[in-house]
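Ticket #4471: complex job returned nothing on first submit. Input attached below:
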Amino acid sequence: MLYSSAIYCKLFLRGFLPIFPNPAMPIIPYYKRRDKNMNSFDIIGPVMVGPSSSHTAGAVKIGIISRKLLGSPVRKAHVFFHGSFLATGKGHGTDKALVAGLLGFSVDDQRIPDSFRYADEAGMEYRLSGIDLGDVHPNSVKLLLYGDDDRHIEVVAASVGGGAIRITELDGLPANFSGDYPTLVVNNLDQPGHVTEISSMLGHKSINIATMQLYRSSKGGKAVIVLECDQEVPADAVRWLSRLEGILKVTYLGLSDGDNA
Amino acid sequence: MYQSFQEIIDKEKSTGSLFWEIVRDNDCTEMDLTKEEAFLRMQAMYEAMKSADASYDASLSSASGLVGGDGERIAVARRAGNLLCGSFLGLVMEKAVKMGESNACMKRIVAAPTAGSCGVVPAVFLSLEEEKGYSTEQMVKALYVSAGIGGIIAQRASISGAAGGCQAEIGAASAMAAGGAAFLLGCDGETIAHAAALAMKNLLGLACDPVAGLVEVPCVKRNVIGAVNALTSADLANAGVRSKIPPDQVFDAMRSIGKALPEEIKETGKGGLAATPTGLAFKESIKGF
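Support reply: We reran it on our side without changes. The output follows.
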């Protein structure tokens, strides 16, 4: 396997996981876990443009989160649909929904069925095609996005049911977050000290870490740290982090509307 | 949310709070909302259902061309007095189909609990409001009852067709609407639970076999059976008819049936109506980008 397996730090810190994964312990895919308690609006709601929470609303949400991760309006997008998205996406308006999300439309925006026209008006180039991403969630999509100032990003995401989504890959490295929390993605060199730098900075800003994941391409190679936080991370803290030695790129996903470039 | 009807019924007896208040208070804790804020949020959901119903457009058809215009056909027949079921049930049928069609045609709807079953609860609620003149406040309280029932189903069984078959979508929506209607009739928690259980028992084991995998055939028209079944179940419960199997056990049965259903009829588009020659032909005609 190319990457080391994910370490769920929160579980680890709580003593639920040993330092090395126990082969006898079943690994529950992250997307199958319930990470918040349900409330009435998970049952009555969301208000959304149909026809499908997973294939339409989820696709809009993937577009919105990917646009935020890019950190600028999308100028060019190449979208590759996989599995059930490819097989039934056209009938579910998955293509229109995804383009709508990339334009920043919300899941209940009545312009979603006409998103192609709005993309043309906004000067957003888009190309839609199919792909086989292998052994991933059936409702998966890969996006190559280009924005202002040479910004570009590669995202693989899955719509996992009821409109909930997971970002499963970012710039070629695995990830696993929902976009429901303020999320910090730090690409760094695989060397000691970066986790401490980030966690002490967040502690200093009184930001609580909800979940934390570490992945690397190889020992001493490129690594990525994904942190879901309970509070927003201020822009100056993100900038400070991006200037540290050994940090290659910092992407921040806030909960507020609009772009957080 | 609560995991059993028994918990809510016990709480109703020990605190004197009503079913809907118990569900709302739990939201207040979970979401850090005041009682007023929680109520207003649910009211917004009800208003969204109303405006979705009002914005039905009979001229639209879905991406596949399989769905559109049937709501208007029912409306015409109802106005002409041509329905065996009469004007009130006719209105319920009409609203259920209209909402399902709006969803398939990419209009704005409220998932309740899912997009495919989005017509059931509004068809029952909006028709009852029009027919009986309940206040908006009553309707929002009833919607809270439905939400509480959906929460129990989600935790004891499922509200996803892929996980539990159509019983988890139209079935769950029907149980939710039945409980809400029972509340509007003035029923207590126990009667509400039986209304929900009676509704679910009629739809246990329902296949999720959508043609071409789309939320169109048979989903749209199944909203009718979900809505009408909800009303008859509420009437049965209100008349004193009881589910001989206790409500919580009915939903446990729903869970085990959902697990036992073959994958082919759990939203994979591989079995049932989807696998008929006509279903397969539609699938071929609309795939790819």
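The radius of gyration of chain A is 18 Å. Closing as resolved unless it happens again.
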